[in-house]
Design brief:
Layout: E1 2-4, E2 25-28, H1 32-44, E3 48-51, E4 55-58, H2 61-68, E5 88-90, H3 94-104, E6 120-123, H4 134-140, E7 147-150, H5 157-164, E8 171-180, H6 187-197, E9 201-212, H7 219-222, E10 229-232, H8 235-247, H9 252-258, E11 263-266, H10 269-277, E12 284-286, H11 293-305
Parallel strand pairs: 1-12, 2-3, 2-10, 5-6, 5-8, 6-7, 8-9, 10-11, 11-12
Antiparallel strand pairs: 4-9
Helix pairs in contact: 2-3
Length: 308
C-alpha cells in the first residue's frame, strides 16, 4: 500500500508528454448520495467514471424520528429538550448532518435555549463541515455565540475524538448509520469507544441506514472489458462489493486476474485498513482525505510516476 501526501498536485494526464490519450476508466463503489461528487472529480482529470454502488445509504422516517427524540421537549423533561443534556454533537458523515437537518426542519422551536450558559460544540469532518452553515446552526440555537463549530485538522473519526479533548463526564450525541445486511465495520464502534476513553459519554443515535445494494451490484464492473482503477470510499463498500462478487461466482483474486492493470485505491487510511482486513490489498491511499480530490490525485500521481 502506498500512502501519498499530495497537498498541491500539479500533474494531470493532459500535462504529461507522451501519456496515452485513451481515457482511463475508473470504477467506484460510492453510494448514490456521494457518487455525483466523485464522478465530477474523475471527469476533471479527463477520465471516465463508472458508478457501481455496493451499498445504499438512506434516511428514513424511522431514523428521523430517532433523532427528533432528542430535539423535542417532552412532558417528562419540562422546559427543555433532551439535547440540552449534551455538550457536543459529533458528525462522522455528511449523511448524518443531512439527516439531522431534516429532523430539525419541522420543529418550530430550536432545541437549545439561546440563554443557556453552557457552550455547545458541533464537529464534522473535512468538506462535510460545509453543511454546518448558518441556516443549519440557527435551527439548533438562535444564539450563534453559544455554538462552537469544530473541524479536526485530521479528517478521521480518531481526529475528531482528539479535537474534542477530554470529556470529563459530559455527553456527546453521535448520529451514525444503522448497518443492515452487512457486518458493521469497526469505524463507528471504535469511534464510540475512543470517545469513552477520553471521558465522554457517547450516545449513539441511528440517523440513517446503510444496507447492501444487492447481489448484482458488482455486475457493471464484471461485464467490462477493461478497468484502470477501482476506488473504495468506505469499508462497507468493500464488503458489499465482495459479497456481490461471490453471488456472481467470482472472488477478489479472480477480479485481479481479470483486470491485471487495475489500481485499487482507498479514500483515506481508515478505508484502506478496513479493506485489507477483508483481503483486498490497496495499491494507493492518499493522506489528503478531507475530500474526494485526494484519492483521485493519488491515482494521477501513481500513473504519472510510472512514466518517469
Amino acid at each position: 500500500m502506498v500512502a501519498l501526501n499530495l497537498q498541491n498536485p500539479q500533474m494531470n494526464n493532459a500535462a504529461v508528454p507522451g501519456i496515452s490519450s485513451r481515457s482511463r476508466l475508473i470504477a467506484f463503489t460510492t453510494p448514490h448520495n456521494y457518487a455525483g461528487r466523485l464522478s465530477q472529480v474523475i471527469k476533471l482529470h479527463g477520465w471516465s467514471p463508472l458508478s457501481c454502488p455496493s451499498i445504499i445509504v438512506e434516511i428514513t422516517p424511522q431514523t428521523i424520528s430517532s433523532i427528533q427524540n432528542y430535539l423535542l421537549t417532552p412532558n417528562s423533561h419540562p422546559g427543555k429538550s433532551f439535547l440540552e443534556d449534551f455538550s457536543a454533537l459529533a458528525f462522522t458523515s455528511r449523511t448524518g448532518i443531512t439527516a439531522f437537518s431534516e429532523a430539525l426542519t419541522p420543529i418550530e422551536k430550536p432545541p437549545l435555549d439561546p440563554k443557556g450558559e453552557n457552550p455547545f460544540t458541533i464537529s464534522a469532518l473535512g468538506k462535510d463541515s460545509e453543511l454546518l452553515d448558518e441556516s443549519f446552526l440557527v435551527k439548533i440555537c438562535e444564539n450563534p455565540s453559544r455554538i462552537k463549530v469544530l473541524i479536526p485538522q485530521i479528517a478521521t473519526p480518531k481526529g475528531l475524538v482528539d479535537s474534542l479533548g477530554l470529556g470529563q463526564g459530559r455527553k456527546v450525541l453521535c448520529p451514525v448509520p444503522l448497518v443492515l445486511g452487512l457486518e458493521e465495520p469497526p469505524v463507528v464502534p471504535d469511534f464510540l469507544n475512543d470517545l469513552a476513553k477520553k471521558g465522554w459519554i457517547p450516545v449513539r443515535v441511528n440517523a440513517y441506514k446503510t444496507r447492501w445494494a444487492g447481489p448484482k451490484c458488482a455486475e457493471v464492473v464484471k461485464n467490462r472489458g477493461n478497468l484502470d482503477a477501482i476506488v473504495f470510499t468506505s469499508t462497507g463498500e468493500v464488503e458489499g462489493f465482495l459479497k456481490s462478487l461471490k453471488e456472481l461466482g467470482l472472488n477478489w483474486e479472480m477480479m485481479r486476474k481479470r483486470f491485471p492493470r487495475m489500481v485499487v485505491a482507498a479514500h483515506g487510511p481508515v478505508t484502506a485498513c478496513g479493506a485489507e482486513k477483508l483481503g483486498v490489498e490497496i495499491d494507493v491511499v492518499s493522506s489528503k482525505f478531507d475530500s474526494f480530490d485526494g484519492v483521485i490525485d493519488a491515482l494521477d500521481y501513481r500513473w504519472n510516476k510510472s512514466l518517469d
